[in-house]
Amino acid sequence: MSRCFAALRQLLQMRRAVPTATFQMLVEALVHSLLDYSNAVLVGIQAYLVRRLQSVLNATARLIYHLQPHDHITDALATLHWMLVPERVQYKIAVLTFKVLHDSAPRYLGPLVAVADLPGRRDLPSASTSRLVISPIKLSAVGSRAFPVAAAQV
Length: 154
Fold this sequence. Notes:
Layout: H1 2-13, H2 20-36, H3 47-65, H4 74-80, H5 85-101, E1 114-117, E2 128-133, H6 147-153
Antiparallel strand pairs: 1-2
Helix pairs in contact: 1-2, 1-3, 2-3
């Protein structure tokens, strides 16, 4: 988190030296690479941590559009086509699940996600469903955040 803010402070110093479009690409590449790295593990994190991550995105949008801290940030995020942090995490889980179901994800994730089939009609195309089976995991605070559970819920 502090790494993102430190990077934003360094970018702020060079804002006038580069064209606006180049500056926006630099900021987006840096912040998105830091925030999106392994954000699939952020499923079900506490609200105060989500707010801290969202503050990084908000600060980035303010930096790009020269907004003041008291200005509304919703329009800037919409203009940049950025999702909020919980939506980004759900999107990442959905993409990872799609890749697992279409055999383009790492092989170790394959056994974690199973698709429910209708018994007795396995040979018919209409027998396939899009429902995922939740593997038998002890559903504790950590178990409900596991990838198989999160994939089936998303």
